[in-house]
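> tool_call: predict_assembly(chains=two)
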Amino acid sequence: MSNEIELVAVAISLAYVLFIARLVRRGQLREKYAMLWMAVGGAVVVVSLSRGPMDAVARALGIHYGPSILFLLAIMFLMAVVAHLSWELSRLEERTRKLAEELALLRPRPPERLVDADPAVSAPDADAIAEPDPDTWVGPPVTPQ
Amino acid sequence: MKLVWPRLLVVIPALNEEATIGAVVRDARTHLNCDVLVIDDGSTDSTVDNARHAGATVLSLPYNLGVGGALRTGLRYAAGHGYNRVVQLDGDGQHEAVEAKRLLDRIEDGHDLVIGSRFAAGYELGRGRRLTMRILSRIVSRRLGARITDTTSGFRAMGPEAIALFSRNYPSDYLSDTVEALLMAGAAGLQVAEVDVEMRPRQGGVPSAHGTKGAYHLARLLLAIGLQGTVKRPANSAGAGIGVAVG
């Protein structure tokens, strides 16, 4: 096999690891994700440099074309990662939703008490309509808050 | 026996309903002995001002959460402030506050959740919607052991048990806030009933979700229904006891 493709693979992997490292330095990526992706980058370097073990594993599993085991593993790994991210996203959505609710609950805006000279052009006086109508009231009296 | 006076809160989720919200709030305050809480779900018009003007307390969500989120906020407020009756109304004026009394009567009978059904008044639906409603009705009625025809009605009355349940955990997706909530009530052993009510045609606003969007929401809902009860879902809220005082 040619050395050129190995070099290209190693170069891409290293560039990837450096990119991840930069994101962490800038505080744009949590370390727990960085460790995962750096491990992936490292694994790709190792696989690129030593193809013997990979071919051996493939043969043991009855796979004729060695590298196809890489595709299989890569797809399974990415599916697991994406499922995890969806899970995290759902959790975050629920958390921000709860925060929004808390925020609304912390700043209730009370009804306006109207002092208006002309009731004909405005809403009825809040005090007047707060009084329940005895004909339509549905239960025992309630002490106002 | 411990006697507890009913304290009624009318909860109205509202998104850009400035044309109707004032009348809805006044209608509720005139016909029911209640406090009115409007949950402003990110309105950009004068909904908040009009609601407060008409005598409602307003909670403003910082961004749009949908009816489910708005409702859960309202129910947490109700639970935290000692209300033991909640009536949910639409902000567009299609529900008549007078009719809520018939829902509340059933709460006094010992039911925990009472649905106001549109179908008595000959509510007209397209063919696709009618089929959908029939399927949902069949599923919900079987699970609850009570006949529920209008599973997506947003006109409901709740007693203390329902308030406690829904203030802890309330489904937030479109359609789930009605249908899934019914099934949750059934799973929690609450008594659910349905009452036929008169409704006015919508006085403003536009109905949400039609066509493919409606189909997507229905599929998602059916998935949720299918999975419900097979997995115990953790409570998604910290609990009802938020001790905020009204200013």
